[in-house]
Write a structure and sequence with these properties.
Belongs to the GroES chaperonin family. By secondary structure, the chain is an all-beta fold. The chain has one domain (8-14, 33-92): Roll (10 Kd Chaperonin, Protein Cpn10, Chain O), CATH 2.30.33. Helix content is 0%, strand content 40%. It is built from no helices and eight strands. A six-stranded antiparallel β-sheet has the order 6-7-1-2-5-8, with no helix packed on it. A two-stranded antiparallel ribbon has the order 3-4. The protein is elongated, with a radius of gyration of 15 Å. The mean pLDDT is 84.
Length: 94
């Protein structure tokens, strides 16, 4: 598994529906980019200018919402993940 550095978080995004409400199969470029997922790994936290480390707010297993165009998609073992900074997470879904 990948280990994120600093304030980065690795998220497994939720899959979008393959069909529209009317039953039409959607092409990949017509699907909306996911904005929710599950945290699978968290870095150690960010370091402030004075040298102190701030622990991350999210933890492994949290369901989160994030900015639409945040992060970088990566593949590992045929699974696609999103790596983003913790500041790009907008909410924890409870």
């Amino acid at each position: 598994m990948l280990k994120p550095l600093g304030d980065r978080v690795i998220i497994e995004t939720e899959k979008e529906e393959e069909k529209s409400v009317g039953g039409i199969v959607l092409a990949d470029n017509a699907k909306k980019k996911p904005q929710a997922g599950t945290v699978v790994a968290v870095g150690d936290g960010r370091v402030l200018d004075n040298g102190t480390k701030v622990a991350p707010v999210v933890k492994k297993g949290d369901k989160v919402m994030f900015d639409k165009y945040a992060g970088t998609e990566i593949e590992d073992n045929d699974q696609t993940y999103l790596v983003l900074h913790e500041k790009d997470i907008v909410a924890i879904v409870e």
